[in-house]
Amino acid sequence: MLTRLGRLAVRYSRAVLIGVLLLFIGLGVYGAGAQDDLDLSRWSAPGTESVRAGDLLRDDFGTGNPNLALLVTAGDGDVDSSRTERAGRELAAEVGRLPLVTDVTSYWDADSPALRGEDGRHALILARLEGTATETREELVTLSPRLTRTTADLDVRVGGQEEISRQVGQEARSDFLRAEAFALPAVLLLLILVYRRTTAALLTIAVGLLSVVATLAGLRAIAQVTEVSTFAANIALVLGLGLGVDYSLFVINRYREERAAGHAQQQAVVRATAVAGRTVVFSGVTVAVSLCALLVFPFFFLSSFAYAGVLVVLSAIGGAVILLPAALARWATGSSAPPRRPPASGTAPPSRPCAAPSWPAPASSPSSSSPPHPCSACASASPTNAPCPRAPPRAPPPRPSTASSPPSPPTPSRSCSPNPPTPVPTPPGSPVSPASSRSTPPTAATRTAGTPAPPARTG
Fold this sequence. Notes:
It is a single chain. Among the domains are: about 1-40 and about 165-330, Multidrug efflux transporter AcrB transmembrane fold, CATH 1.20.1640.10; about 70-160, 2-Layer Sandwich (Alpha-Beta Plaits), CATH 3.30.70. The chain contains 12 helices and 5 strands. The protein has helices at about 1-10, 15-30, 35, 50-60, 80-95, 105-110, 135-145, 160-195, 200-225, 230-260, 265-290, 300-330, and strands at about 70-75, 100-105, 120-130, 150, 155-160. A 5-stranded antiparallel beta sheet has the order 2-3-1-5-4. A hairpin with a 3-residue loop joins strand 4 (about 150) and strand 5 (about 155-160). Helix 1 packs across helix 11 (about 265-290) and helix 2 (about 15-30) packs across helix 9 (about 200-225). The longest helix has about 35 residues, at about 160-195. The protein is elongated, with a radius of gyration of 46 Å.
């Protein structure tokens, strides 16, 4: 199946790339508004005893646990002073008139020591905002700056569960954009250092971006039917880039190995998709199945992690086995292939011209000549080159016949053959005793002046 998919991606690479580009643009436009449709979550599981008790207090008594707190600091240093008390009661009444506020309790109205600081300078005003987490936190976007103030009588700071969660969500959203702006250039630089090819690094980033954009679009679609936490967007960014780089490394590295083995470009793409694609699919399915375990928990922000994880894995697999092979088939020539490597140790070096052994011609037989050298390149080679492995074995020449003691023959250069020199055959009519494999050179006592010395025979 993966082999057929690789062949189709190679054969219709242009159509695949155009289709993926259009899909990327469409998913990007739709997924750009995903943050507005994602919900903020609370740390409570539906159906638990605490949730049922809260529902009972809300339905029967119109109250519940306060989720908004105002920390009031007296300007004169005493929360029990008449001026501070008057300003505190006015602030509590103002909070009670705000939208979504159903219950307000202040230190001055309840006269509770638990709402007063030990130093007497601080006091609390507690309120409850009714509604979902998204509704209350959206309302606090305007209420929090409105309630935060510093006057001559009071210094007010806003806190509580809903305000803290709102600020955490706001920071998470800004961190998402900041991380995306920082992570993409950093990952691209690292990929260029790893691949040593810009094209391969850009293709890997493209797979990661496709995974992130497709996941955001899928999360927005899921948010139309169920609650999806805003933290799922961060999972999409982290896993999208990570899995995109991971799976692309599998495919591109296998493609380089196939090219180094001598396969043509399109054949290398198909083989890389079939072999590395199997690893990518198996790894992705394993990750997706593992993340599905988060659906068992009742917290919907954990379920949102499962949604994001499964979507990002599926989109990363699609980019690695569809987009990447098509892109390699179109743009990988000369850019994603590995650089030439030196020959491995133990490999025979390439042949080079060499010089034949230079035996001096004997002085007494000028007519004798050596056979032509079989290596034409040795004609212009210097004598210092290595011997030619194709040269025939050569025999040393006989000693010249002189009246005086002949000089020693020059030491011949290394033969082109690993075999020892072939002995010179004995002329006909000159029997040689089998026992004498070497001739004994004449001495000075057995020679007469002017009598030439017999030539020496070499074995």
